[in-house]
Amino acid sequence: MTKTIVRTDNAPRVPLYSQAVKAAGLVFVSGQGPYDPATGEVAGDTIQEQTRQALKNLSAILEAAGSSLQKVVSVTFLLGEETDFAGMNEEWLKWFPTDPPARQGARLPARPKNIRISIAAIAEA
To answer: Which superkingdom is the protein from (predicted)?
Structure first.
């Protein structure tokens, strides 16, 4: 099996893991928080703002891999608080209005820099 590491400056980079890996015709995107790639700071205070930034980061990585949000087949999201679920869904529907990917969610075990959400995805390459 051949794997390709995906990197882009249009999303935050963490030296401990790859932004994404392409293998077996799929793109596996690491969890993306609401960090602005230009500043490294958390983008926004509300769950809607943070969800939007996490999805922008996810989209940028998928584009760098030659894929897109439209090719996402599965998502795992982690929320800081269970009460953020409705607000996350509000923003989510703007990005996936029809035929959304399969998804599962859980609560963040830790909240670095007060992030409220992290989103990982698997997409067709």
So the answer is: Bacteria
112 pLDDT exceeds 80?
Answer: no
CA 115 to chain centre: 13
Could you tell me if 120 and 35 are in contact, meaning their C-beta atoms sit under 8 angstroms apart? no
| 82, amino acid identity | E
- The residue assigned the tokens 């269970």 is 82
**Alpha-carbon span 23 to 111, nearest angstrom:** 30
Single-letter amino acid, residue 73 = V
Q: How many residues does the chain have?
A: 125
CA 50 to chain centre: 11
Strands, E assignment, 43-93: 72-79
CATH of domain 3-124: 3.30.1330.40
| 110: pLDDT strictly greater than 90 | no
